[in-house]
Amino acid sequence: MIRLPRAVVVGALAFLAACTSVEKKPSVPTSKAVSSETTVDDPYLWLEDIHGEKPLEWVHAENAKTAKAYAETPEFEKTRARILEVLDSEARIPYVQKLGAHYYNFWKDAAHPLGIWRRTTLAEYLKPHPKWEPVLDLDALSKTEGKRWVWRGADCLKPDYRRCLLAMSPGGGDATVGREFDLDAKAFVKDGFEIAEAKNQFGWIDRDRIYVMTDFGPGSMTKSSYPRIAKEWKRGTPLAEATTVFDVKEDDLGVNAWHDPTKGYERDFVQRTIDFWTSETFLRRSDGTLAKIDVPLDAIVDPHREWLLIQLRTDWSVGGKTFKGGSLLAAKFDDFIGGSRDIVTLFEPTATVSLDKYSWTRHHLLLNLLDNVVSRQEVLTPGAGGAWKTAKLDGAPALSTVDADGIDADESDDYFMTVTSYLAPTTLYYGTLGKGKAKAIKHMPAFFDADGFDVHQYFVASKDGTRVPYFVVANKAIKLDGSHPTLLYGYGGFEVSEVPNYSGTVGRSWLERGGVYVVANIRGGGEYGPRWHQAALRENRLRAYEDFAAVAADLVKRGYTTRAHLGALGGSNGGLLMGNMLTQYPELFGAIVCEVPLLDMKRYSHLSAGASWMAEYGDPDKPEDWAFIKTFSPYQNVAKGKDYPPILFYTSTSDDRVGPVQARKMAARMHEMGYTNAWFYENTEGGHGGAADNRQSAYMHAMAYTFLWAHLEGTGP
Q1: Tell me, what's the pLDDT at 395?
Q2: Number of domains, the chain
Q3: Mean pLDDT throughout 492-499?
Q4: Do 556 and 702 fall within a single domain?
Q5: Cα–Cα dist 567/464, whole Å
Q6: In this predicted model, what pLDDT tens digit does every residue of 348-397 receive, in sequence order?
Q7: Which residues does residue 393 pair with via DSSP β-bridges, in sequence order?
Q8: How confident is the model at residue 171 (pLDDT cuts 50, 70, 90)?
Q9: Where are the beta strands (DSSP E) in 264-325?
Q10: Which of 194, 217, 233 represents a domain boundary (last residue)?
Q11: What is the secondary structure of 390-453 as a DSSP string?
Q12: End-of-domain residue from the set 387, 420, 446
């Protein structure tokens, strides 16, 4: 899925990091004037009216045809039921967040399809079957209020964690409402803070004040459809009287403001996000004046207690030193604001090792690193005189993913660690740094029999000679005779790393049936840090597609599969990848599934939240940018008379991030050209994830796998 820049959400409602790029509904996507030339070139602009009667009639007709072909068979129903068993299993690991004395979990299952927010104690959580105390039942709330609420998270006020600001979405889109909730009473606060549906961000200052970024009316939103004004809102006063504390330009991506309540280090910050990869962050003093944190625009800053962490995307020369892009740096916060440039390098990337993420405990910093896309961890400890000590955290089995996170950076050195791989079910560990090895406390059940499978990592040279890694999961006894249905997955954008991860859905729906599963670590992702991402930005976008095509060709060369048996799947930015596989490399694939995709790169910046991604793809309204964007715009590049493989476009009416219209238009254009093997299905709920609950998710995945099996085995319509 497409992510927001981290800069947009640092310090405020981190749970909204992937879901605040939104558009109110019902509405036509925000768009600039359409020229007569564009109208002539695009006869399917009418499908951009997301909730219009005529477009929805077209959607319902296409849905009926696709469902009849792929969702009305015994095999589909079997696949759907087995996926739903995984998604609803009560044996899944209930991941938690510590808020005060309790550990909170949001849980969906057959009895709670929309989910229940619940809590327990640490002592209970460490038991195999903890007792949970219900806090908020979204199914019951939805029934009472007559709205289908989808959970988006909670921001709770330190230090007592009694009052929370809940973010909930009606129907599953990115647009949320904000409502104040009392954890002691387990009820919404009468006459409490409430923010109407919009692309909201908000966070506590103290019990009677919050920062709020929302749609305040005309002129309050950026062209990227984010809030451009941050206000301070006092309890008991109308939102219209909230005080503006910071605003940004209409051409910027958005604004943010947040309060750090850490005792002894209370600070306020505001942030101007210029585009997806650049921003400016300011310390907001008590008198309202601002002090800029003077780092490169594309750096990420993270104030924590006495420290300022700086994560670089490009090289930075300062204080007589040059720090390498991809590095993590540390400085004393007050000294840095005062002008000192005494900076320490905590991590520097190598040709194969990159920083995936980090997190604090009370006295340590946990680094999660990727070494040729395989995890390892380090523990850093600040010492006297600015020196930091480095130690290793126990690793994990080969070709696996380890994720270590501090539990409470204010109070303890406790941490959770998850260990997962393609074949080993996820295990959750609990430990305390400096007190021996972490202990396994939760195990995901084995949803499929993995004993007969192996995982291999291969590397292939792309068109320009770059070495591209990929993982293959296949039966140990496989004969490399090219006969095996193979599913190749990829994303390749926004610095997102695709790492080994256990999936009961993939295991049941693909591996157990004899398929080979492949994940490509193509450029545009973050597997080798910022440089891997930057190698496929804007005018270099084709590099990502060349990488994916090289992996596809290598699978055939190694004997795993042939074109007739090779399928591809991707969503969002990965949907754009799929569109380019269709139009540029149709000879490589036997079937393609393209989910919640970008496809019309001429119009993408005028649709839903598309304007916020121009730093990634370019601005199609600028002739110099359109010159390279048009080379990877599937909607403009699809042509008559080609040997295109069967393709399924899957999208969602309520997707207010990418929107459903690009998939609609692509399917319609292919139908006009005579391609009867272009299929379309649009779920009415679910937002950018394509599904609002587990039942819808199971349906979506079952349709995709049924489609792929039918065509890769030669039985499709």
Answers
A1: 63
A2: 3
A3: 97
A4: yes
A5: 24
A6: 999 999 999 999 999 999 999 999 999 999 999 998 777 899 999 876 67
A7: 377
A8: confident
A9: 267-275, 278-284, 290-292, 300-304, 307-311, 316-318, 321-323
A10: 194
A11: EEEEP--STT-EEEEEES-TTT--EEEEEEE-SSSPPEEEEEETTSS--EEEEE----S--TTE
A12: 446
Do 576 and 587 have their domain in common? yes
**3-state SS, residue 372:** coil
pLDDT tens for each residue of 654-712: 888 888 999 999 999 999 999 999 999 999 755 556 455 889 999 999 999 999 999 99
Q: Does residue 445 have a cis peptide bond before it, meaning omega lies within 30 degrees of 0? A: no
| Domain boundaries, position 163 | 91-194
| pLDDT band for position 6 (cuts 50, 70, 90) | very low
Angle, to 10 degrees, between the axis of helix 694-712 and the axis of helix 74-88? 140
Closest CA to 187 of 131, 150, 134, 143: 134
Residues 511 and 641 in one domain: yes
108 located within any domain: yes
Is residue 619, in this structure, part of any structural domain at all? yes
Active site residue 259: no
Q: Between residues 655 and 490, which one has the greater pLDDT? A: 490
Q: How crowded is residue 209: how many other Cβ atoms within 10 Å of its Cβ? A: 16
User: For residue 386, what are the contacts with CB-CB under 8 A and spacing of at least 6?
Assistant: 332, 342, 344
Same domain flag for 527 and 598? yes
- pLDDT score of 37 more than 70: no
Q: How far is it, in rounded angstroms, from Cα 43 to Cα 664?
A: 12
Instruction: Count how many residues are written for the chain.
Output: 717
Q: Is 671 an annotated catalytic residue?
A: no
Q: Examine the domain organization and report whether 635 and 489 are in the same domain.
A: yes
Same domain for 442 and 463, yes or no, is: no
If asked whether residues 433 and 504 sit together in one domain, one would say no
Please give the torsion angle defined by the CA atoms of residues 613, 615, 619 and 625, in that order, rounded to the nearest 10 degrees: -140
Q: From CA 581, how far away is CA 74, in angstroms rounded?
A: 31
Residue 479 forms part of a structural domain: yes
Residue type, 477: A
- Of 580, 1, 673, nearest in space to 665 by CA: 673
Choice between 171 and 281, residue whose per-residue pLDDT is larger: 281
Same domain? 514 vs 430: no
Q: How confident is the model at residue 578 (pLDDT cuts 50, 70, 90)?
A: very high
The Cα–Cα gap between 189 and 167 comes to 14
Q: Which of 565, 688, 701, 711 is catalytic?
A: 688
End-to-end CA distance of the chain: 29
Residue 12 lies in a domain: no
Q: What phi and psi, each to the nearest 5 degrees, are found at residue 139?
A: -65, -45
Helix, strand or coil for residue 265? coil
Q: Which helix (H) or strand (E) holds 574?
A: helix 573-584
Exactly one of 279, 354, 503, 572 is catalytic; which is it?
572
Is residue 9 within 8 Å of 151, Cβ to Cβ? no
Output the CA angle 453-1-613, nearest 5 degrees: 145
The CATH number covering residue 623 comes to: 3.40.50.1820
CA angle 27, 28, 30 (to 5 degrees): 105
- What is the reported pLDDT for 657? 85
Q: Is the pTM of this model over 0.90?
A: yes
